[in-house]
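Sequence only, no structure available. Ideas?
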Amino acid sequence: MLIQSVLAFSFLFVASYASVQDFCVADLSLPDTPSGFPCKDVKKLSVSDFVYSGLGAAGNTSNLIKAAVTPAFTAQFPGVNGLGISLARLDLAVGGVVPMHTHPGASELLVIIEGTICAGFISSANAVYFKTLYKGDIMVFPQGLLHFQINSGKGPALAFVSFGSPSPGLQITDFALFANDLPTEIVAATTFLDVAQIKKLKGVLGGSN
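Reply:
I predicted one. Tokens follow.
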């Protein structure tokens, strides 16, 4: 009886494993779903669906934060659809910063390629973990927690970040508060900032009200 049960379990395991697809390259012509994009017809696939060359060039850091993030998420690299992974390139000019932000859908791993970056995160218990990182250093940022990166060196910095999701999501705290039409009175009541400062930040970041 025991042997029969083991054999039955083994058969079910093998059958379920065999039914799993090798991959599901995103068909970006169809709507996204909570479980990812529908799969592109396997007969229409080529090796190009599994290769992405968009991270070889530096991003444009001529902006307010002096930083550029070049993603290789599902929308840019359909081959990662359903695989639970993705990558991005981070370029930071001198004085560049990626402000406090979260990725609701994934943890992040940062590896420094060139330059010096001060990076850190804040736990749900409000404990702060930050460190100055150098070439070859790696730091992890747990899913959903506020974190940041600052170029703390004297030259440009380059890093690559990997995520545990093909679509990790992004919410930058400053833009969430000051780059929309949330009334100034509500922002003041929920952040304890004075109205003049809030209006100044809304003016810088493009918010209203």
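The chain has two domains: 23-169, 170-209.
Hope that gets you unstuck.
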